[in-house]
Amino acid sequence: MSDPALQLYKSVVDGFAQIHEGVHRVWVTERGFPDLPENREKNQFLSELRPDQKEVLVQMLEEARDGGIHDTLVYLHDRMAIEGLRLREGGIEMAHEPFDTQLYYDWVCRRAGDNWPDE
Asked: Which InterPro entries is this protein grouped with (predicted)?
């Protein structure tokens, strides 16, 4: 029988691990940002880049996005560990450090394609 608190933990971490590219890859490499006044400067900049430069920019944007996710998970973990923050869904409280590792560490491992320690 599986532990619902552990399953919720895995679901949250895996959900964050699946967030990656977003729309920036398409906007940068294919069609530009939406045609709005606030995006004119961005689209002008993109029009001046070669495809290989656009690819570098996409990688930078994806790394920044990953950094933001990591920072969010560090913040949530610290609040859970220090201040008692708890996450609940459907009456189930998410496990905290079920593998004796931090939320953000488990995210990094799952992003890298590692299996869960209990699999």
From this structure: DUF6547 (IPR046677)
Residue 82: CA atoms inside 13 Å, Cβ hemisphere, count? 6
Query: Who contacts 9 (Cβ-Cβ below 8 Å, separation ≥6)?
Result: 94, 95, 96, 98
Residues 6+ apart with CB under 8 A from 38: none
Domain map of the chain by residue range?
4-111
Q: What are the tens digits of pLDDT across the range 80-101?
A: 999 999 999 999 999 999 999 9
pLDDT at residue 1 greater than cutoff 80: no
Which single residue is written with the structure tokens 């593998």?
99
Read off the pTM: 0.85
SS3 content of the chain, % helix, strand, coil (to 5): 65, 5, 35
CB–CB of 107/73 below 8 Å? yes
